């Protein structure tokens, strides 16, 4: 036994020799040779990742990189065709004195290819197959123009490299076309025409040392307009510049004409619509599971598309707006079959390279969406739901509503609340006409909480509340719709509920018509077998409510101030105040999205879908955008 320095006992061990043999060391580092493998950990990452660099970017990231590169090459091609100093070289100066018109032709080709590549860049980023086909043709042409006009080997090599990358990863560009209509031909003509005039002015003004005289802006503009149609204008140049400018302007005019003709005569792919069979299947699902979501009946809008789960027990309805595949509310049907319908929805979005998004889903729906797809969710606002059994006009909190209703009733107004199936066709026609005339805008607003129709025979369970003022000495003269002064339309929410669809009133009627009809509907609800009523959706309600409380911080107060400012156009605060009058319970609603960077695009698409932002042709040309109710011709097969 031996004793260690700290007093602990340990077993005896053979003693080591006093002089161990020296281990050979590396002459450069001085480290032992047995530590040589550690040296490889010091090798720069660039060398360790060399094989990955030679393999190129990941396939899924290729479309984004290719789209950006395509835009940059397009800008280079445009610059090569426009600015003389950009293309100046000794070889180019020698080629300009040779006979023939290779230089002017190459300049026009470079300009045309550059413009088209800029237009295709966004389609390549979205993995569009047709954009890939066009880029595969244009990139070699751009390389020929770069070498034939600038005589630049680098300018010709870059398009060839991008061309090779497109061929190698052609499987990544398989997205189908978007729904479209004929009006895009006119939009293309206007945008391309304006762009051609602007670019033409730059071309005409880019040769100050070769210009004869001092032409003014009017002369230059006239020269551009003549040149777009292939004619000679009032501006003259020395040398071959006159041919170069003429061919470039002619190429822009020809490009504008050809793209417009292409958009006008290409096959149309209309937006997906509900077929009669789809509607029947959705109604069957709503009959069994419609009580789950107050927005379920709005899935029957006939301007929506639908995808069903493999079992057919669930469905997701959507509309495509500005490249966003926008669903609303929760999926329809059995909750256990929701994942199958959501998977089909995501497959459809991937097939077309659409941005998937969901507006106004419930907390349960948001949990399923985020769990099944990996998307994120953000609280969008709250839905006001009134339980009929708890509603009463008594109490201090209901004093304002109570006084308003009594005042209107004393003025002689009467209310009627009935099912759609109990109204005659003549009365339904009068209500439809009044609702259309009282609409405040040319566009029918609503998407997530609007059905888009009144009095359809298939919607016999819907409820219509109307306000009437009989004729009398104190009553105004009858209008075009008789004694009808206001209309509220509710759609079914399962068998014991209803959801508010639209509110319309005569602008000449007394204020408070909507409050009167909501109270009348709530009073009549027990007789209709309705136990719960869903009112309007209040966007950002929690922020408005918390921002006005005592002790709210500066950030919350600032956010509330911004919402109040935006309420001048979007009725954010007014809808919240109106709903709060009836003391509802608030049910949160969410927006589901893929990434934060896509939220502005989703918000713009949602505003277009809801009718707050409209992009339409002038009235004389709106026949070009005729609505054709056909199923989508390129829907992914089930």
Task: Write structural notes for this entry.
It is a single chain. By secondary structure, the chain is an alpha+beta fold. Helix content is 45%, strand content 14%. It is built from 21 helices and 14 strands. Strands 3, 4, 5, 6, 7, 8, 9, 10, 11, 12, 13 and 14 form a 12-stranded mixed β-sheet that branches. A hairpin with a 2-residue loop joins strand 4 and strand 5. Helix 6 (102-125) runs parallel beside helix 11 (241-265) and helix 9 (183-205) runs antiparallel to helix 11. It starts with a strand and ends in a 28-residue tail after the last helix.
Mean pLDDT: 79
Care to count the β-strands?
14
Give the low-confidence spans: 1-31, 33-43, 89-101, 617-638
| Overall SS class | alpha+beta
Number of helices: 21
Major β-sheet profile: 12 strands, mixed
The quaternary state of the protein chains shown equals: single chain
Distance between the termini: 82 Å
Helical content band? 40-55%
**Percent of residues in β-strands:** 5-15%
Search tags:
14% strand; 21 helices; alpha+beta; 638 residues; two-stranded antiparallel ribbon; elongated; disordered N terminus; 12-stranded mixed sheet
What's the arrangement of secondary structure elements?
Layout: E1 2-3, E2 9-10, H1 36-39, H2 45-48, H3 50-55, H4 62-82, H5 90-96, H6 102-125, H7 129-150, H8 153-168, H9 183-205, H10 217-228, H11 241-265, H12 276-289, E3 305-308, E4 314-321, E5 324-328, E6 332-333, H13 338-352, E7 355-361, H14 363-373, E8 376-387, H15 399-410, E9 414-419, H16 425-437, E10 463-468, E11 484-492, E12 497-505, H17 513-524, E13 532-539, H18 541-547, H19 554-570, H20 572-580, E14 585-593, H21 599-610
Parallel strand pairs: 5-7, 12-13
Antiparallel strand pairs: 1-2, 3-4, 4-5, 4-6, 7-14, 8-13, 8-14, 9-10, 10-11, 11-12
Helix pairs in contact: 4-6, 4-7, 4-8, 6-7, 6-11, 7-8, 9-10, 9-11, 13-14, 15-17, 18-19
């Amino acid at each position: 036994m031996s004793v260690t320095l700290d007093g602990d006992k340990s077993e005896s061990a053979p003693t080591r020799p006093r002089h161990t043999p020296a281990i050979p060391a590396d002459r450069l580092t001085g480290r032992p040779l047995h530590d040589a493998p550690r040296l490889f950990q010091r090798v720069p990452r660039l060398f360790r990742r060399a094989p990955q660099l030679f393999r190129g970017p990941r396939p899924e990231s290729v479309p984004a990189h290719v789209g950006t590169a395509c835009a940059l090459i397009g800008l280079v091609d445009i610059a090569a065709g426009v600015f003389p100093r950009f293309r100046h070289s000794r070889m180019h100066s020698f080629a300009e004195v040779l006979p023939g018109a290779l230089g002017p032709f190459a300049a026009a080709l470079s300009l045309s290819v550059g413009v088209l590549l800029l237009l295709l860049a966004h389609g390549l980023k979205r993995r569009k197959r047709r954009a890939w086909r066009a880029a595969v043709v244009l990139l070699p042409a751009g390389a020929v123009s770069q070498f034939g006009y600038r005589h630049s080997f680098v300018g010709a090599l870059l398009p060839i490299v991008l061309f090779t990358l497109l061929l190698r990863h052609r499987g990544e560009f398989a997205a189908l076309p978007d729904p479209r209509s004929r009006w895009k031909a006119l939009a293309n003509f206007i945008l391309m025409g304006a762009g051609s005039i602007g670019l033409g002015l730059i071309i005409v003004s880019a040769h100050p040392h070769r210009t004869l005289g001092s032409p003014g802006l009017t002369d230059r503009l006239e020269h551009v307009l003549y040149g777009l149609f292939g004619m000679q204008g009032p501006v003259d140049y020395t040398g071959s510049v006159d041919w170069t400018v003429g061919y470039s302007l002619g190429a822009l005019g020809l490009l504008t004409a050809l793209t417009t003709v292409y958009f006008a005569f290409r096959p149309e792919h209309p937006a997906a619509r509900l077929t009669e069979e789809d509607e029947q299947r959705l109604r069957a699902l709503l009959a069994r599971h419609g009580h789950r979501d107050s927005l379920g009946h709005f899935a029957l809008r006939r301007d929506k598309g639908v995808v069903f789960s493999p079992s057919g027990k669930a469905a997701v309805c959507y509309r495509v707006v500005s490249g966003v595949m926008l669903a609303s509310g929760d999926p329809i049907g059995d909750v256990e079959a929701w994942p199958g319908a959501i998977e089909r929805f995501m497959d459809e979005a991937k097939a077309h390279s659409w941005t998937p998004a969901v507006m106004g889903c419930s907390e349960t729906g948001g949990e399923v969406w985020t769990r099944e797809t990996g998307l994120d969710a953000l609280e969008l606002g709250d839905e006001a739901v009134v339980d009929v059994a708890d509603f009463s006009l008594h109490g201090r909190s209901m004093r304002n509503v109570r006084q308003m209703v009594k005042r209107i009733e004393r003025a002689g107004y009467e209310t009627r609340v009935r099912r759609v199936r109990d109204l005659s066709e003549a009365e339904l026609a009068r209500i439809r006409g009044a609702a259309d005339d009282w609409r405040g805008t040319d566009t029918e607003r609503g998407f997530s909480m609007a059905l888009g129709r009144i009095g359809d025979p298939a919607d016999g369970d819907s409820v219509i509340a109307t306000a009437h003022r009989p004729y009398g000495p104190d009553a105004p003269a009858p209008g075009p719709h008789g004694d009808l002064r206001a209309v509220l339309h509710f759609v079914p929410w399962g068998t014991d509920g209803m959801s508010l669809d639209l509110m319309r009133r005569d602008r000449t009627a007394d204020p408070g018509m909507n409050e009167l009809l909501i109270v009348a509907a709530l009073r009549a609800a027990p007789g209709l077998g309705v136990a719960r009523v869903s009112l309007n959706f209040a966007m950002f309600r929690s922020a408005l409510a918390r921002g006005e409380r005592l002790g709210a911080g500066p950030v919350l107060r600032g956010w509330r101030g911004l919402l109040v400012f935006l309420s001048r156009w979007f009725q954010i605060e007014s809808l919240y105040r109106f709903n709060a009058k009836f003391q509802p319970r608030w049910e949160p609603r969410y927006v589901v999205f893929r990434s934060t960077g896509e939220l502005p695009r989703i918000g713009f698409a949602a505003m277009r879908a809801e009718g707050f932002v409209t992009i339409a042709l002038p009235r004389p040309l709106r026949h070009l955008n005729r609505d054709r109710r056909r199923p989508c011709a390129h829907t992914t097969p089930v």
